[in-house]
Please model this.
Amino acid sequence: MLLYLVRHADAESKKPGMSDFERELTELGRETTEKMATALKRMGLTIDIVVSSPLVRAVQTAGIFRKVMGVQSDVVKLSELIPGSDFEELIEIIFSLKAENVLAVGHEPHIGEFLGWLIGLKKPIEFKKNTVACVEFSSLSISGGKFEMVDSSGYDIEPFGEIKAKNLSGRRDSNPRHSPWQGDALPSELLPLEGSSL
Model:
């Protein structure tokens, strides 16, 4: 399975009487999301299903990816993509979808912490707005393969090489959100890309 992780695009500032849940994308956010989705489509990438945090800005970002990339199914809203949610529950739900190519839209710092947890880093990977990262899995019990990140400022894919295998199942740590894999060190070049904040 290929899991594409996306941080939502630029959103409006919170207004008096508005909850954080209600914040919508700005026009810039809509434009940059469409450009990113178009870039991924031109690369020949396919998405089977799009999942999103239920917050409005994330759902709107997910909807643009779904439309531009020609995904047939509706966006699936997952409360497990809200910051503070459990990583093990999230990955189990994603695998339960039985899809080969999943795109998930979430928020910082949760999405960066989740990616770091998936690939065994002891600290999160910073996501600029509208940045996309991809992790390849062979099964729920073992992750590994290629990890790539697309910078939102230039729409370029940066390969990071092979990722060590990691056991994702059967682990019930007291604090699974912050319990990185205790394995071999990852390559030193596995660092987030620099890019402008959108």
